[in-house]
Design a protein that fits this description.
The chain has 289 residues and is of the alpha/beta class. The protein has a single domain, classed as TIM Barrel (Alpha-Beta Barrel). Helix content is 40%, strand content 14%. The protein is built from eleven helices and nine strands. A seven-stranded parallel sheet has the order 1-4-5-6-7-8-9, sandwiched between helices. Helix 5 packs parallel to helix 6 and helix 9 packs parallel to helix 10. The protein is globular, with a radius of gyration of 18 Å.
Length: 289
């Protein structure tokens, strides 16, 4: 039996958390908070943060670290999803909205048009709202990325997730260098949009390999980095190889900052959308000072 470090102890979901979960389910809204079994669900819901997950709740890929459903029938994107997200965002009073998705390699445009519709509807109906996206790779195709970039979100993230050596084992349908090109192409299409990426650590990567990933991300001008501890969703997923110490997380944070990242959030419970608005505000203040 795996013994978790004490800092993984989390508060139990409260009545308000269950009420919000029921409300989102009633409205037909998927969240990565639930689908990816995020350890911060209660804390984020209490602070008013929600990360919407569009394009359904079944992924077309089979990454071994991810809790999102896979190997099931894929359905067409729901045509009312953009409207639903607008209505829920209004009801919850959201001013900073994070949107991610499953990967949809089965769709001709990989879901890029649906992303654009969701963001455009939010901008049209919620004046002044800030939007952060966490997108799949779209095979790094510029014409697809441009559809998303042209909606002018504040941040576009795309996660490398792990080091190059582990891709064949834990991300067999993804490509490390395609993911780097995604971030590079976003900057080429609109240098003013902040880019963001994330690594989950503890899958057997070496320190030197992590540092190499950080250097690769800076070569494509990635602005924001998050680093968190991998937690295996089940015995059928990729196993945890080690727990990263708090000191090691701080070391990676210092290395990343020395390489030129504008903001870095690193710690065991950090996930790519964790404290997203705070990080955006930090980067904005940095750029305006």
């Amino acid at each position: 039996m795996i013994r978790f470090p004490v800092y993984f102890k989390q508060e139990l979901p409260c009545r308000d958390t269950f009420a919000k979960l029921a409300y989102l389910k009633e409205k037909g809204i998927n969240t990565v908070c639930v689908s990816a079994a995020c350890p911060n669900l209660t804390a984020c819901f209490r602070s008013g943060a929600v990360t919407f997950m569009i394009l359904g709740d079944v992924c077309s890929r089979g990454c071994l670290f991810c809790a999102v459903k896979k190997n099931r029938q894929l359905k067409a994107p729901h045509p009312q999803e953009p409207e639903r997200i607008v209505n829920v965002a209004k009801a919850l009073g959201l001013r900073y909205i994070v949107i991610t998705s499953v990967t949809r390699d089965d769709l001709p445009d990989h879901g890029a048009g649906h992303f654009a519709n969701v963001v455009s509807n939010l901008h049209k109906n919620l004046c002044g709202v800030k939007i952060e996206l966490l997108i799949p790779d779209f095979q790094a195709r510029c014409q697809l990325l441009k559809q998303v970039v042209d909606t002018q979100p504040a941040i576009i993230g795309h996660n490398l997730e792990t080091v190059w050596r582990l891709y064949k084992e834990v991300r067999p349908q993804a490509d490390y260098f395609i993911s780097l090109r995604v971030l590079e192409n976003i900057k080429r299409l609109n240098p003013k949009i902040f880019t963001k990426s994330s690594l989950i650590l503890g899958m057997g990567e070496k320190e030197s390999e992590v540092v190499e990933v950080l250097k690769d991300l800076r070569k494509v001008n990635c602005d924001i980095l998050t680093l968190g501890q991998y937690l295996s969703p089940s015995k059928n997923h990729y196993p945890i190889k080690e727990f990263i110490s708090l000191e090691q997380f701080d070391y990676y944070r210092q290395v990343a900052l020395s390489l030129g990242f504008k903001a870095v959030l690193a710690g065991p419970l950090v996930r790519s959308s964790y404290k997203a608005e705070e990080i955006y505000n930090e980067v904005s203040r940095c750029m305006n000072s």
